[in-house]
């Protein structure tokens, strides 16, 4: 617990929260612009369209945001060459767990703020009814797991390599991969496609009426497997990071 | 009956291998309590690797480490290191935090008090700069902060790897004085590594000399000084007969590069022996008084490539 508290103490003046809020701010600005002046049919399926749009947005942005978060948390140790001191005071496993938990808490706050803002915005726009609590909770749960897998992958890279460009480039590359996945499928077994796999809402665009119909997706066995794969990635990246960091000599 | 003094650090055949390269080879180090143990060796001799193994930062390929009388393993490592402070290679710090905030982190991890932070800041003379961001510190100040972090909680054992690196002459002098005072003022045993003999000579009372991963000398500094003996060197026409004559007088000699080396003698005895040699029709070309300096011994032990 002390080690976790110190993680938050250490990121003072590193603008970690500010950079996360800046990323969230970009999403909010996009939301304010893209969802303005909804038509009647958009208001009717507003809550479903919101879930769909957020998944697309997060699918594109989260790989980069997670690489930024992991990099901000890890590079303070590389810059000051602190691991060799910390490892004489705490077991390496404890240091890794504290770092992972710190990032996880920031991620939870980030997703909670995003959900709160967009739901509030939905009400302001006059979306009909209330958000489907079951689908929203499930969607955010899966999104959290998917973002967590990306964060743990990035943390692994950021803690192992002093040069943070490696993890940042992989994070940006992940966003590109997510964009490509979006064009070809509704699911992916790659870690960067996890958010798309867990999009609970599908859409159908009618060319003639130019109306989009949203619906809750029926998951085929392979799509279900892709969702399960998100949790596999979480376990794999956590275990790999834990193993590599604890085995690494200072 | 005299009780055997328990060494604070003991290594038993400690070995570290990186691929085919042997960085530390069957090293048996013994650090007695209350000592300033100078760990001396040329660059790349294996000093840092040895110290890192003692701190559990590097896994030994073979051998064992005993700390405070207990064999160290992965399970008890952190517990044993609770009473240890360290400064390895370069100081560790968070540049975006102030000096005091940096020490607060170590204080929390070590579980010591805020007054300890104030005291170590005072000892390393950083009290006035405690609110300044460490990123804006000079190298010497960072080094002092590193020492303050190591001193926090006033551990029983302090391991310092080349602590004077990057310090100006005044800073080096200050660091030396501080290290020398630690055993008497705070009861701290210090292991300090350096590649500079003069530095160890001024700080340590025990010395271990490492060369290519092997501990080639370990004893008190006094004992090392005793090796720095004076000799008489004779250059004569017949070394064999001269050596026999000296042996008959109970003087053991060595022959080296055409010189006959014998221990320092009283003036009267030296005159008598020289007379005896000359009476045997042996020509005496030269008589020299030679001194084996500490530097010579160090170079002999570590090889000529070592820096002093």
What does this entry show, briefly?
The complex is a heterodimer of chains A (250) and B (308). With 250 residues, chain A is mainly alpha-helical.
How is this structure best described in words?
Chain A is mainly alpha-helical and 250 residues long. Chain A is built from ten helices and two strands, in the order αααααααααββα. Chain A has helices at residues 2-10, 16-34, 40-44, 46-80, 83-86, 92-125, 133-160, 164-184, 194-197, 221-247; strands at residues 201-206, 211-216. Chain A has a two-stranded antiparallel ribbon. In chain A, β1 (201-206) and β2 form a beta hairpin. Chain B has 308 residues and is an alpha/beta fold. Helix content of chain B is 36%, strand content 27%. In chain B, the strands form three sheets. Chain B has a six-stranded mixed sheet, sandwiched between helices. In chain B, α3 packs across α4 (114-123) and α4 crosses α5. The A-B interface holds A 2-3, 5-6, 9-10, 12-14, 76, 79-91, 249-250 and B 52, 55-59, 77-78, 81, 84, 86, 88-97, 101, 104-106, 108-110, 134, 149.
What is the fold's blueprint, element by element?
The complex is a heterodimer of chains A (about 250) and B (about 300).
Chain A: H1 2-10, H2 16-34, H3 40-44, H4 46-80, H5 83-86, H6 92-125, H7 133-160, H8 164-184, H9 194-197, E1 201-206, E2 211-216, H10 221-247
Antiparallel strand pairs in A: 1-2
Chain B: E1 9-18, E2 21-27, E3 30-31, E4 36-40, H1 47-54, E5 62-67, E6 70-71, H2 77-81, E7 84-87, H3 99-110, H4 114-123, H5 139-151, E8 157-161, H6 169-186, E9 189-194, H7 197-203, E10 206-211, E11 214-220, H8 221-227, E12 230-236, H9 239-248, E13 254-256, E14 259-263, H10 267-279, E15 284-291, H11 294-302
Parallel strand pairs in B: 4-9, 4-10, 7-8, 8-9
Antiparallel strand pairs in B: 1-2, 1-3, 1-5, 5-6, 10-11, 12-14, 12-15, 13-14
């Amino acid at each position: 617990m002390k080690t976790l508290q110190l993680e938050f103490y250490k990121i003072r003046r590193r603008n970690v929260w500010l950079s996360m809020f800046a990323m969230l701010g970009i999403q909010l600005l996009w939301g304010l612009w893209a969802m303005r002046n909804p038509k009647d049919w958009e208001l009717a399926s507003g809550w479903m369209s919101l879930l769909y749009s957020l998944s697309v947005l997060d699918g594109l942005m989260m790989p980069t945001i997670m690489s930024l978060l992991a990099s901000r948390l890890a590079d303070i140790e590389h810059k000051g060459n602190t691991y060799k001191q910390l490892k004489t005071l705490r077991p390496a496993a404890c240091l890794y767990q504290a770092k992972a938990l710190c990032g996880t808490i920031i991620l939870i706050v980030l997703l909670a703020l995003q959900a709160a803002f967009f739901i509030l915005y939905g009400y302001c726009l006059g979306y009909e009814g209330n958000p489907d609590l079951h689908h929203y909770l499930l969607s955010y749960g899966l999104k959290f797991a998917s973002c967590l897998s990306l964060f743990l992958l990035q943390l692994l890279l950021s803690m192992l390599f002093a040069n943070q460009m490696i993890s940042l480039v992989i994070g940006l590359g992940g966003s590109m991969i997510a964009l490509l996945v979006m064009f070809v499928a509704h699911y992916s077994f790659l870690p960067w496609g996890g958010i798309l796999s867990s999009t609970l809402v599908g859409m159908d665009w009618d060319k003639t009426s130019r109306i989009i119909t949203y619906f809750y997706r029926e998951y085929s066995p392979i799509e279900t497997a892709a969702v399960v794969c998100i949790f596999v990635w979480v376990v794999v990246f956590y275990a790999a990071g834990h193993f590599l960091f604890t085995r690494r000599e200072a | 009956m005299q009780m055997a003094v328990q060494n604070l650090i003991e290594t038993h055949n400690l070995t570290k291998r990186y691929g085919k390269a042997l960085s530390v080879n069957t090293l048996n180090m013994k650090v007695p309590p209350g000592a300033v143990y100078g760990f001396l060796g040329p660059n790349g001799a294996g000093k840092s690797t040895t110290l890192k193994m003692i701190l559990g930062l590097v896994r030994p390929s073979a051998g064992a480490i005993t700390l405070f009388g207990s064999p160290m393993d992965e399970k008890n490592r952190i517990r044993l290191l609770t009473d240890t402070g360290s400064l390895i290679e370069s100081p560790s710090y968070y540049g975006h935090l102030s000096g005091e905030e940096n020490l607060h982190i170590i204080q929390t991890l070590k579980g010591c008090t805020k007054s300890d932070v104030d005291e170590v800041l005072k000892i390393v003379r950083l009290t006035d700069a405690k609110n300044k961001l460490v990123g804006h510190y000079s190298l010497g100040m960072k080094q002092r902060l590193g020492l303050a972090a190591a001193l926090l909680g006033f551990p029983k054992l302090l391991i310092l790897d080349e602590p004077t690196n990057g310090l100006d002459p005044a800073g080096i002098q200050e660091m030396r004085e501080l290290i020398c005072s630690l055993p008497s003022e705070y009861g701290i045993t210090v292991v300090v590594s350096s590649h500079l003999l003069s530095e160890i000579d001024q700080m340590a009372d025990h010395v271990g000399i490492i060369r290519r991963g092997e501990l080639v000398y370990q004893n008190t500094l006094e004992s090392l000084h005793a090796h720095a003996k004076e000799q008489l060197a004779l250059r004569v026409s017949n070394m064999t007969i001269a050596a026999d004559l000296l042996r008959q007088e109970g003087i053991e000699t060595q022959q080296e590069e055409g010189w006959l080396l014998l221990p320092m003698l009283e003036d009267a005895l030296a005159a008598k022996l020289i007379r005896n040699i000359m009476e045997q029709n042996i020509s005496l070309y030269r008589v020299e008084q030679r001194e084996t300096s500490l530097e010579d011994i160090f170079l002999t032990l570590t090889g000529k490539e070592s820096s002093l």
